[in-house]
Design a protein that fits this description.
Layout (H helix, E strand, L loop, with lengths): L1 H10 L21 E3 L10 H5 L5 E4 L2 E5 L8 H5 L5 E3 L14 E3 L12 H7 L3 E7 L5 H7 L13 E3 L8 E5 L4 H13 L5 E5 L1 H5 L21 E3 L6 H11 L11
Parallel strand pairs: 6-7, 6-8, 8-9, 9-10
Antiparallel strand pairs: 1-4, 2-3, 3-5
């Protein structure tokens, strides 16, 4: 027992000092794409054709990317002959409105906005979520689960995951919502007491991801339940999820510090 105590003391404080200190991201991390100013080459659609989910769109030379569909695979950047697309290391991707996930050159960023003041008073200090895996591949689920580890320690922000929707303030949904999960998701939503919120995590939960358009999926959570926060990615980094939750609750002030 003494050896375990000594080893633990030697490990020191393991929890990341976020949001006071910016997170350390892996070298290969792909964050928010940046689109260079100017028009695409005449007739070039290499990036559009390379995208597996139709997230990249070009209209008369104007280029845009739908982060709600984007898998962050980097195929569009590799295919672009003029190198107009670059994936940055910006991890703050969540948005309160689906339209704010659209990225276009020269367009202002849209990050997660705080909820209505009344709702923020209810959830701002304590938020309990029921996680619903609606046909996910377990990538988004794994990165959500890791928020409970020592590194992130989501409980220090008053955010907890609970086993029953009757004990929850809202749902955190992952996966494209196949037809055989749609009723289960709706029943879970109905069992959650009002006022309640829904967070869609990952491209599948936002748009259906690579399964969009398939007759066996609902193309995300929103056709079944109303969504209050969209967290794009495939999967989103745990810091992307955490940042979105804290901004939604008004827990991060301007400049990124804890409110």
């Amino acid at each position: 027992m003494l050896r375990e105590v000594v080893a633990r003391l030697g490990q020191g404080f393991r929890t990341a000092d976020y949001p006071r200190v910016a997170p350390v991201l892996p070298p290969r991390y792909r964050g928010k794409p940046s689109l260079a100013e100017g028009q695409c080459e005449q007739g070039c659609a290499s990036c559009v054709q390379a995208c597996p989910t139709g997230a990249v769109q070009a209209d008369h030379g104007a280029l845009g990317i739908d982060l709600g569909k984007c898998l962050f695979c980097g195929s569009c950047a590799q295919a672009c002959p003029s190198h107009r697309i670059e994936f940055t290391r910006e991890y703050r991707l969540a948005a309160a409105k689906r339209a704010d996930l659209w990225v276009q050159s020269g367009q202002a960023d849209g990050i997660a906005a705080a909820l209505h003041e009344t709702t923020r008073r209810v959830f701002g200090r304590s938020l309990r979520l029921r996680q619903v895996s609606a046909g996910g591949c377990n990538a988004c689920e794994a990165d959500v689960n890791v928020l409970g580890t020592l590194t992130f320690d989501i409980g220090r922000f008053g955010i907890e995951f609970v086993a029953s929707p009757r004990h929850a303030d809202g749902l955190l949904v992952t996966g494209p919502v196949p037809q055989n999960m749609a009723l289960a998701l709706k029943k879970t939503w109905d069992a959650t007491p009002a006022p309640r919120i829904v967070i869609a995590v990952g491209a599948c939960a936002i748009s259906g991801g690579p399964y969009a358009g398939n007759s066996q999926v609902r193309d995300g959570a929103e056709p079944s339940v109303p969504v209050d926060l969209f967290v794009p990615g495939c999967p989103p980094h745990p810091y992307t999820v955490l940042d979105g939750l804290l901004r939604m609750l008004g827990r991060i002030a301007e400049g990124g510090r804890r409110a």
